[in-house]
């Protein structure tokens, strides 16, 4: 099984090389940020109420009332070959709004001695609430890739969020509005496509939230559903699903633990062809 996964991994990297040589889209896939949203099937554009909203919908920054840091790590597909990690920081109360910073990194691990590949994304976010219940936010993104030669690009995200007393919320986010091109020193280039996202979240019970998202990349529409239920103040259970692969569903789940200023989140994601993936996030509120 491990041998088959290694062969598949080489094929994946060969595909990336093909993308770079043909200038077609293939890099900086929207993998997400934060174990909590990932456990909920990536249905977070309308919820967007922790620091990871920087990635999903920057307008959500205005919902935070304290500084927050979230870090994340995953061994993608449980192969020991590709690591995916990230971090984000949110700071409310700046000029009538809130600011945030984020970072994600996808890279081959130390076990891969025949190839060095990495994708880095840096985000700077700002959000304000010009109307009651309504917020708007923007991201400035810097892309840095390293695969035989280095490549860079810059993207722009924008989001809108309507939240009525945490009972119902509606969010819209457009990632990479400018469809940036990552230009490599070798002369190759790769285009990051526009990702349109829209969602709704409702709280039928005080401790239960149900979310529904849709996103569209290159005319490929995916449906995301998720739920979060809190058992008291300190423990949450989460579940989600994504309708994405030939009309089939992939599933996710996870838990969250909060103790004072510390937040620990875990997410599990099922994959059709590869091994399943586990995500861990550690957060601090202060």
Helix content: 10-25%
Look at the structure and name the CATH superfamily: Outer membrane protein transport protein (OMPP1/FadL/TodX)
Number of helices: 3
SSE string, helices as H and strands as E: HHHEEEEEEEEEEEEEEEE
Low-confidence stretches: 1-5, 14-25
Shape category: globular
Helix/strand/pairing category: mainly beta
Strand content: over 45%
Termini, distance in Å? Answer: 45 Å
Determine and state the CATH class.
Mainly Beta
Largest sheet, spatial ordering of strands? 1-2-3-4-5-6-7-10-11-12-13-14-15-16
Notable features of this structure?
single chain, about 290 residues, mainly beta, Porin, 14-stranded antiparallel β-barrel, about 10% helix, disordered N terminus
Question: Can you walk me through this structure?
Answer:
With 286 residues, the chain is mainly beta. The chain has a single domain (2-285), classed as Porin. Helix content is 10%, strand content 58%. It has helices spanning 2-22, 35-39, 53-56; strands at 68-75, 82-94, 97-108, 117-131, 134-147, 149-164, 168-175, 181-184, 189-191, 195-205, 208-217, 220-230, 235-245, 248-259, 262-269, 277-285. A 14-stranded antiparallel beta barrel has the order 1-2-3-4-5-6-7-10-11-12-13-14-15-16. Strand 13 and strand 14 (248-259) form a beta hairpin. The chain starts with a helix and ends with a strand.
């Amino acid at each position: 099984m491990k041998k088959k996964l290694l062969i598949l991994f080489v094929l994946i990297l060969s595909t990336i090389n093909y993308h770079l040589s043909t200038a077609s889209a293939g890099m900086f896939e929207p993998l997400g940020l934060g174990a909590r949203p990932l456990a909920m099937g990536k249905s977070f554009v309308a919820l967007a109420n922790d620091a990871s909203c920087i990635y999903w919908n920057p307008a959500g920054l205005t919902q935070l009332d304290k500084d927050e840091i979230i870090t994340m790590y995953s061994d993608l597909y449980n192969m020991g070959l590709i690591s995916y990690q990230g971090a984000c920081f949110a700071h409310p109360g700046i000029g009538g709004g809130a600011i945030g910073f984020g970072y994600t990194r996808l890279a081959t691990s130390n076990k891969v001695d025949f190839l060095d590949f990495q994708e880095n994304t840096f985000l700077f976010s700002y959000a304000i609430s010009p109307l009651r219940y309504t917020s708007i936010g923007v991201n400035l993104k810097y892309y840095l890739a390293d695969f035989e030669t280095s490549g860079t690009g810059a993207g722009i995200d924008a989001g809108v969020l309507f939240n009525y007393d945490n009972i119902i919320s509606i969010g819209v986010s457009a990632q990479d509005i400018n469809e940036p091109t990552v230009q490599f020193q070798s002369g190759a280039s790769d285009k990051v496509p526009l990702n349109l996202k829209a969602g709704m979240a409702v709280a039928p019970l005080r401790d239960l939230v149900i979310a529904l998202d849709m996103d569209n990349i290159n005319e490929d529409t995916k449906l995301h559903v998720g739920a979060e239920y809190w058992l008291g103040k300190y423990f949450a259970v989460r579940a989600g699903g994504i309708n994405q692969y030939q009309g089939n569903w992939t599933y996710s789940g996870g838990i969250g633990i909060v103790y004072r200023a510390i937040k620990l989140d875990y997410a599990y994601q099922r994959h059709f062809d590869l091994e399943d993936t586990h995500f861990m996030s550690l957060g601090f509120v202060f």
